Amino acid sequence: MVKIASFDTLLFAFSITLFAGLSTGIGSALAFFTKRTNTKFLSVSLGFSAGVMIYVSMVDIFQKAKMSLTEVYGEKLGSWITVASFFAGMFVIALIDNLVPKHENPHDFGKVGEREEDEKSSKLMRMGVLTALAIAIHNFPEGLATFASALKDPKLGVAIAFAIAIHNIPEGIAVSIPIFYATGSRKRAFLLSFLSGLSEPVGALIGYMLLFSFFNETTFGILFAFVAGIMIFISLDELLPSAREYDKQHLSIYGLVAGMIVMAISLLLFM
């Protein structure tokens, strides 16, 4: 059976989820110190994040989900529940993406450079605010994923928080650039970006409160497989395509392989 998490474990899980969410604000701050996004760094970092998330999802998270569920329901039924939960995670995150208007999707990084050249206007302000709202909605399940992973395995939670933090940084840029150029206020642009990132720890808290009385091997198994589906979808639908937009020398693929290697070594070191 799954043990009830101690206060220290809950505090740790919440802390790293907060860190992952607030990295959106880091992106906002970085946008004010450079006129042009470092596209090479962006390509490598997004690829690295995708590599970490894909590897840890398929090699570790999915397998742990299957182990928990087959222990309770047997090999055949447990495997079916694992697979169903995995694709359910993909379906939910795809549904969230479809509810966000395409031109306001926070993961469409390709237009960031163009926004820097636009004049101040109400249109830019609206775009920035709606992007912040879209990020808040999108980050909600990511917060639950990070928090749940940290409760089950703190070391795994740190790895996931790190990967999510990397891909949250460009989202901060996508919020801050249009708002800053629309208002001329660094403070206002940073504040909206900062607040949009808070949806991750909020998602963690709400999810935990709703599921607290149901936490057992079955809940963790379904949630872990669900999280794996979310992370794979984010990597394939958002991180890698965005990284490829800035990729001139296969940098995104190098970043992806490096992310997988780092994740593989870290998992082996803590076996």
Keywords:
271 residues; 10 helices
Word description of this protein:
This protein has 271 residues and is mostly helical. It has one domain (7-266). It is 82% helix and 0% strand. The protein has 10 helices and no strands. It has helices spanning 7-31, 39-73, 75-99, 112-115, 122-152, 154-183, 186-197, 199-211, 217-245, 251-269. α2 (39-73) crosses α6, α5 packs antiparallel against α6 and α5 (122-152) packs across α9 (217-245). The chain is globular and about 60 Å long. Residues 109-120 have low confidence and may be disordered.
Averaged pLDDT:
76
Shape: globular
| Unreliable parts | 109-120
Into how many domains do the coordinates divide? 1
The rounded Rg comes to: 19 Å
By DSSP (H or I, 4+ residues per run), the number of helices equals 10
Number of E-state strands: 0
For the report, how would you describe the main beta sheet? Answer: none
User: How much β-strand is present in the residues?
Assistant: under 5%
State the assembly state of the protein chains: single chain
Gap from first CA to last CA:
21 Å
Give, in order, the helices and strands.
HHHHHHHHHH
**Proportion of residues in helical segments:** over 70%
Question: What's the quick description here?
Answer:
The chain has about 270 residues and is mainly alpha-helical. It is about 80% helix and about 0% strand.
